[in-house]
Amino acid sequence: MSGIIGKKVGMTSIFSADGRNVACTLIEAGPCVVTQVKNVETDGYNAVQLAFGERKEKNTPKPLIGHFKKAGTTPKQKVVEFRDFRVEFEGQVELGKSVIADEVFVEGDFVDAIGTSKGKGFQGVVKRHGFAGVGGQTHGQHNRQRHPGSIGACSWPSRVFKGMRMAGRTGGDRVKVVNLKVLKIYPEKNLLLVSGSVPGPKNSFVILEK
């Protein structure tokens, strides 16, 4: 597979061999269950569907219950499809098989982490876009230092351009952080220690890709 599903445990720091203090994130990666295998003949492309995290059957839609029973597993919380998995795994994945972190990654690998960033609600331009605020009374401002100021002309274009940086709902977006190094693997606990920060709060789902 090209990746695995995990859950963010939290952040910590370790000392590297040269004495540097490295910020890192602990992720509970797996065990995941293969719930579907797609191939070129039937689906037009190669892919493996993995599921992670236990879910109560009474809170699971009936079509999903049947889908999981076909794979011989209990209902899961998170289902992710990994397309175009690596050639060396072709033929080794089968329905209902358990996938663990040390089967996919080795220490020293560089991975991409995909998660949902923390939602911060409706925010102004200073917090949302890093505006410095209006120190002097310019740009059409008066006595409102954290407001954006003038946003356009009058007769032309007579509208606000798309993509204008303004106030709005902040966070809660799908975010991808690339090139995080796998510093340590704890196979007995299905834990990965990766360098840097990972999007989302504690206990949120994270997708790790090679």
Please, how many helices? 4
Going across the biggest sheet, name each strand in turn. Answer: 1-2-11-10-7-12
- Which residues sit in consecutive blocks of at least 5 with pLDDT less than 50? none
Please give the radius of gyration in angstroms. 23 Å
Cα separation of the termini: 9 Å
- Strand proportion, as a percent range, falls in 35-45%
The helical percent reads: 10-25%
Shape label: extended
Order of helices and strands: EEEHEHEEHEEHEEEE
Query: Mean pLDDT, as a whole number?
Result: 88
Major sheet summary line:
6 strands, antiparallel, barrel
- What structural class should be given to the helix and strand makeup? mainly beta
Number of strands: 12
Keywords: Ribonucleoprotein, Ribosomal protein, RNA-binding, rRNA-binding
Family: Belongs to the universal ribosomal protein uL3 family.
GO molecular function, one term: structural constituent of ribosome
GO biological process, one term: translation
